[in-house]
Amino acid sequence: MSLVISVEKTQNPKEKPDPSSLGFGQVFTDHMFVMDYTEGKGWHDPKIVPYGPMEFEPSTMIFHYGQAIFEGLKAYKTKEGKVLLFRPQKNMERINISNERLCIPEIDTDFALEALKALIKLEKDWIPEAEGTSLYIRPFIIATDPFLGVRPSLTYKFIIILSPVGAYYKEGINPVKIYVESDYVRAVRGGIGYAKTPGNYACSLKSQVEANKKGYTQVLWLDGVEKKYVEEVGTMNVFFNIDNEVITPSLEGSILAGVTRDSTIELLKSWGVKVTERKITIEELYDAHAKGTLIEAFGTGTAAVISPIGELSWNDNVIKINDGKIGSLSSKIYETLTGIQYGKVEDKFGWTVEV
Amino acid sequence: MSLVISVEKTQNPKEKPDPSSLGFGQVFTDHMFVMDYTEGKGWHDPKIVPYGPMEFEPSTMIFHYGQAIFEGLKAYKTKEGKVLLFRPQKNMERINISNERLCIPEIDTDFALEALKALIKLEKDWIPEAEGTSLYIRPFIIATDPFLGVRPSLTYKFIIILSPVGAYYKEGINPVKIYVESDYVRAVRGGIGYAKTPGNYACSLKSQVEANKKGYTQVLWLDGVEKKYVEEVGTMNVFFNIDNEVITPSLEGSILAGVTRDSTIELLKSWGVKVTERKITIEELYDAHAKGTLIEAFGTGTAAVISPIGELSWNDNVIKINDGKIGSLSSKIYETLTGIQYGKVEDKFGWTVEV
Ligand SMILES: Cc1ncc(COP(=O)(O)O)c(C=O)c1O
Ligand SMILES: Cc1ncc(COP(=O)(O)O)c(C=O)c1O
C-alpha cells in the first residue's frame, strides 16, 4: 500500500498516569490512528491525530446495527528499553476474518501493522515499565454511514487507540471460580461467535452479571445446540489437563481463535506435551474430576495470559480443581509466554516483533 | 416521573425534502430528544435539542461491546391533519424487554412516550402527507462509558431521532422472493434474538448480502438448534395460511415479538379466522405446498406493514406461493392496518394514539 500516514501532534500532552495505580482501559494516550473507508475509493487518509472525542451523527449505523469489529493486543517494554509486540500479524489477520463475517471491507494487514508501529513509536513514553504492566492496543472498525436501514455500510472508520495498563496479577496468580452457563447461550455454529465483534460481548453481559452475583468471576459457555460441549470463558479460551493430555475445544466457528490459545498449543507441543484440539463435553470434565484425572484447567487470553481455574460450578455441582491452586503447566506456560513477551526468555518461535 | 423536558430550538431549520422522492432513513428532522443515565443518579436531563452530530470518545463502550437497543415505529398524518401513533406503548415496553436482556437500566415508559409526543409535536410539519408516507421514529439507547473492558456501562444515552419516509409500496404491493437460510444462524434460544439490539442485525448482514446476490430480497431464518423450524424474515415476522388456518411461529426467545405480528393476530381473530402460534417446520410448509394447501405467506413489520411472500427457495427447492400474487387475507390485513394507522378505518381496538 502506498498510502502515507499524516501525523498531527498534540499541542496539549497529557500527564502520564501514576504507574503504581494503573487499571485497565481507562486512560488513553495522546494520539490515535484513524483511517477512513469510502465505497469506490477504498481505505484512505490514514492519519495519526491527537486522541480525543470525535463527532458522529446520531443516525450513524454503528449505533443501530452493530456492524463493527475490534482487536486487543499489547506492547511490552523490555528491561533494555526495547518495545516488543507479540504476534501482531495474528491480530491483523483476525481483523480480516472478523471483517469477512461482518461484511466490512478487508484491510491491508501489512499497512495496518505499519500504522500500529508508527503510533506506538510516537507514544513510546506511554508504555509503563513496571513488572507486568504494558500498553494495551485496541484497533477497531465501525460502520459510519448516517443511515437507518439494515445493509452493510458504505463508509467505515478504522481506529487504533492505546491504553497503559497495570499488571493483571498484582498479588500473585489466583485461580478463578467459574460458573458453567446452562441457560444463556453466547454463540452457535453458523453465527458470529468466531468473530471479534461487539454483538458477542453484548450478548454475554447478562450471564456474566448473574454469575458475578453468585460469586463467580467468569462464565464458561457451552455450545448453543446441545449445551454440552465446552466452548470458552469470557474473553479467554480454555484448556484442560486430563491425565497429562492437554485438551482444548477445537475451533468449530462459535469460539474465538485466540492468539494466546495458539501460542499455548505450540509451546506445549515444543515441550513434548500431548495437546489435543477436539470437542469436549462438560460431563467428561466432571467424570475426569471424579476419577482424579482432571489435573489442571486454565484460560488463555491477552489480558491475563494464563488464568488458572480453581473451581467450576455446573448445575449446582461444584468441583475444585488442583486444590484451587495454580498447576505446574499453567505456571510454566505463564512464565514462558510472559518471559518471551518481555524479552526475558529466548524467543525460539519468532513471535515477538520489535517496534 | 417529574422530569421536565428542556427545549432548545434550532436556529437553522432545514429545508424539508421533496415529498415525492422520499426514501428511507436518510433525512432527519430539525430536532432530537436526548436523555442521559448515570449510575446512582438514574435517567436525567431530558432535552429536545437541534438534530446534529454528537461527540463521543473513541473508547466509548458502544463502539466496542455493542451494549445498545433500539426501536422503530411511525407517526402518520390523517387527511384531517391529525397525527397518529400506532400502539406506541408496545414499543416502549419492548425497549424495557430489550434493556433487561442487555443489562441496560429500565426506562419509564410513560415518560418516554411523553417525550416522544413532545418531539413529534415540535416536528409536526416534518410529517409527510402523501399516501403511504410517514414519519419514522427511532428511539435508541447506547452505552457511553469511555472504557475498555467487558461489563455493563455505568452511563447511557437515550436518543430519539425522526426521519420522514416515503411510501413502502410505490407501485402496488409486489410479493417478494425469500431465501431460506440453511447455513447462517441469526439467533438461538438462550441468546439475544428476542431483543432489538444491534448485534442481531450485524449478525444477519452476510446472509442477506448473499441472498441478494442470488436474486432474493430477504432471508427466512431457521432455528439455530435443529435448523428446521421457521423463525422470521429480515425485519419481519412471518405468517402462513395453510388450509385457511393462519400459522405464525410462537415466541420462543429467538425472534422479535413484532407489534405488527401482534396486531395481525388480533385482527384475524376479530374476523373469526383461525390463528395459531406454534412451532412450524420448513418441511411442513413445503409439504403443504405440495398438497396445494399453502394458500398464502406474508411478513409483518412496521416498515412494510404486510409483505406477501411470492417465492421460497430452500436448499435449491423453489416453490411459488399463490402464483406469486398477493393473497386475499394479506390484502385485507394490509388495508385494515394501514386504514387504522391513517385514521381512515374505525379503530375498534384502541390502537392509535393521537399526538
Ligand atoms: C471471546 C474471546 N475468546 C478468547 C479470547 C482470547 O484471545 P487472545 O488470546 O487472542 O487474546 C478473547 C480475547 O481476545 C476473547 O474476547
Ligand atoms: C428482527 C425483526 N423481526 C420482526 C420485526 C417486526 O416488528 P414490528 O412489527 O414491531 O415492526 C422487526 C422490526 O421491527 C425486526 O427487526
UniProtKB/TrEMBL annotation, chains A, B:
Keyword Nucleus: no
Highest taxon in the source lineage: Bacteria
Catalytic activity: L-isoleucine + 2-oxoglutarate = (S)-3-methyl-2-oxopentanoate + L-glutamate; L-valine + 2-oxoglutarate = 3-methyl-2-oxobutanoate + L-glutamate; L-leucine + 2-oxoglutarate = 4-methyl-2-oxopentanoate + L-glutamate
Keywords in alphabetical order: Amino-acid biosynthesis, Aminotransferase, Branched-chain amino acid biosynthesis, Pyridoxal phosphate, Transferase
EC number: 2.6.1.42
A GO molecular function held by the record: L-leucine-2-oxoglutarate transaminase activity
Root EC class: transferase
Keyword Transferase among UniProt keywords: yes
Family as reported in the entry's similarity comment: Belongs to the class-IV pyridoxal-phosphate-dependent aminotransferase family.
Name the record gives this protein: Branched-chain-amino-acid aminotransferase
Gene name of the record: ilvK
